Predict the structure.
Amino acid sequence: MTGMNENPADLLPEVLLAASAVLGLLLGAWLPRHRQWLTGALAGVACTAGIVAAATAAGPVETAFGESFALDTLTATGRIVILGATLLVLALAAPRVRAHPRETEFYVLLQLAVAGALMMAGAQDLLLLAAGYLLASVPAYALTGFRKDAPGTEAALKYYVVGALLGVLMLTGVTVLLAAGRTTAYPSLRTALAEAPAALVAAGAIPLLAGVLFKAGAVPGHFWVPDAVQGSAAPVAAFLTTVPKIGALVAFYRLGAVPLSGAGLPWGDLVAVLSVASMTLGNLAAFFQRDVKRLLAYSTISQVGYLLLPVAVAGRAGLDQEALLFYLAAYALTNLGAFAVVCALPGARTVEDYRGLARTHPALPAALVVCLLGLVGTPPTAVFLGKLEVFSAAFDGGYAWLVVVAAVNTVASLFYYLRWIAPAFVARADAGGVAGPGATSRSAAVVAYGAAAGSVVLGLLGGAVLDVVGGPLAR
């Protein structure tokens, strides 16, 4: 049901996060440096309260503030996954920025970027989608270069240039679609675009989707991912490859299921091509990487390819929505677990630096094995069930050939994950290296253990979770 609902309580998770960012900024101006960790604690409270609000919000499917923000299962699940992932990022970042001169600024920027991802996930209007894109992007540029060193500055500049270019293209697409449909609200566009000239709709939809794909880190907006991930601090890299991606993919799915569903465009074929390009390019590029962060960067590009499978059949297959949402949750846990291992070993930059780790820190390589093989899709991890669901959704939607390509890419990805895992179980010739005393961050290691265990538990409880996330979509 669509109504003129302007109750701020409908946006409680977003309001809590924005309020926490503003309050944290004010507190940071007065708190001494050794007390600025309170702003991080405030961010954690806001995320936790937002998860509770999203999980307990029950009611009919509707839109808030006219038709601009959707209140449905897609939004609720997106909120929970985004805020849950943010809590893990906060746990990874807190030891790194403790007593930093700009500790408060870090937490404020992080919360603003998360608020943008939440807006993208629930956007039911092109203008709100564009606003969410900007809010998710600008703070992320600053976070990428937060260390103010040469690699971070270069990465932030590349990230900004690509984001600015595709942001302009996205706004151009919004303008063209407004001209074609005489509105920016999704429900109204669904009818209007079906009657508009197909060429005009395509001219607006393609640049719009390019902007969304930039936030998802998919082809053709993937160029920033390797440099931004390698040049930024490990907790920031974990954030960039997880949280914005969730908001963008939920927004991408909603675009295909609502406003573009009746536009007469070959939506499924276009997304299928992008899916193949993303998973194949990501896997091929990862084969030759020795730097672990850069390897994970290309891994995230390939993972977007699998996540695009249910988007290709948005609204046309019975499993598409729950497959996407479950895979997003599984990916967030598993990817953050892998980055937590990287954070736990700040001195390990290449796969060779992990040699002999199993002898001195056996639990860490165990978590690494669970997370990396989980990204491949090894049972009983959650990604295994997620891939099974997205493959089933694509097959039911008539894309059997796409499932075959995805399966081949899945097998191929095993090579570079094993190339990282193998050295950890091979003895070192020397007693030094990252496995030595004082080389491990205990808090990051705890996050790695928790994420690895959570991935397995989510996989085992997947049936119950899938039943929850299959609710109706606001139209």
